[in-house]
Amino acid sequence: MDLEDTKPTIKGEIFHLPGWYWYLKDEKDFRELPNAENVLEVCLRGMTDKFRIMGFTELLTTVSKLLHVPITPNENKLNYTSYIKYIYNRHPFIQITSKPISTENVRITIPLKCSPSHEIQLDILYLNQHFFNINYHLRYIVVATDIFSRFVWLYPVIELDVEKLTNALLRAFSRPGLSNDYFDKIRNDIQIITVDGGSEFKRAFPETMKSIFPNSKVNVSPPKSQTFGRPTFTGPIEAAIRTLRKLFRDYGLARQSNVLEEGGENQQAQVGLASVIFASNSMKRAVLKGKSPNRVAKSIINNELKIATRLTEHMQKYRKKQLLKKVDLQTQQFPIIQSNSAEYVYRLYLPQTQFPKEVDFRVSLKTYFITEYNSVKVKIRNCEDAEDEQETTWQSLVLVKQPFEKVPNLQQLKAFYNKEENQNNVQMVPVNLMEPYEISETIRAAVGEDNSILRARPGRVLRRSDRIRKQRQEE
User: Fold this and answer.
1) According to CATH, where is 3.30.420.10 located in the chain?
2) Which residues, 6+ apart, have CB-to-CB distance to 141 below 8 Å?
3) Residues 6 or more apart from 20 whose CB is under 8 A from it?
4) Diameter of the chain by CA atoms?
5) Sign of CA dihedral 384, 386, 387, 388
6) Is residue 337 a contact partner of residue 116, using CB atoms and an 8 Å limit?
7) What is the pLDDT of residues 191-243, one digit of tens each?
8) Closest by Cα among 104, 63, 106 to 87
9) Homologous superfamily of 119-324
10) Largest CB tally within 10 Å, which of 51, 80, 259, 452?
11) Taking the complete model, does pTM exceed 0.70, yes or no?
């Protein structure tokens, strides 16, 4: 690469990097702690003990409880927060799954106004090609969320046929346990069903929604193509789908990509899907004042009005706080990394698809350092393979901390990242995996036993060509 204005290599030189970075600031080296090895072991185990990758706040709380160490300012005790940041910043799982932070601006989200048992939003989660191949060529998950509690319901469907899709949705509301109990509690109070106007939600869909949510009306939100890219009113369902997509990815990382299979002894089918639902509804949210959707749903079921009232007040304050928040757009400066033994390395920002929320990984698994550069282009070298060199731009680089070389389940991460799992060549999902339980009696009574939707199946009969059908008959 011929870079005429290549600058000399000066260790510690500061240069504005017009790209991306990912790490939490104000860290301290955990090796300064007297119990450093114990802290590292607990943190690494905590981040991979469950299949779901923990956010920093959740990890901080978990480690604090396990080690009985303070994480809030205390004059008499050492605060461990900065030391745990150091470990969190260097975990490969966290680095490749976290969304890089732009060096130029900050995005602020403002939650919608909402009240208990008022609005349900619906949309479709499209599984990526890897999950499609592993899960019997299943492509779609229908998702519903209550925008107050952020509680989600979901169910797989193999075609976006209106009757099959509606049947799958009814099965999502019928899932035994809290999913069914919460649905039964709020169904008569729901006033709005918001959809994004996709073709799968048209025709007979509003009529069906009217039967299972008798006091509701269907609201079709305009697509962003008609709002000049501005946000619509479907923020909660889009956030739910982003979270679910991450949880599917985490389940594939820690366990397996097949989410339809049966579990161990006495476990029904869809054990992976059930685990994803439980994980999503168990996550504590800032917008819920540190409570989980499960906790909020249970409070509504048990008529604990004080919790709903306090939560409504908190949401109003949280919304106002976000509206008034000022963004610091000050240009940041970053070191240029020209060694594979430096404190930082680079990962490459993966090319984004037309639908960024479908991306499982944001950056490359490989790490790099810079060998030559100018104001526009850089030449980078693989930290582990000196022969792997390439030319790229500053905008494609993501600055991260030097990752740990040894963490639990690292080989599983690499196998999932590289899609090395055996694909399932069966194109028709077994009935026992698609229908592990029946639609609830409440819903059957609401829509009527003669309704053709109850006879629709979320799976489909395998369509074979005449040549394949003839071959099967001869066999």
Assistant:
1) 119-324
2) 124, 125, 127, 154, 155, 156, 157, 244
3) 100, 101, 102, 103, 349, 397, 398, 399
4) 82
5) positive
6) no
7) 999 887 665 666 666 778 888 899 998 888 766 555 444 445 788 898 899 89
8) 63
9) Ribonuclease H-like superfamily/Ribonuclease H (3.30.420.10)
10) 259
11) yes
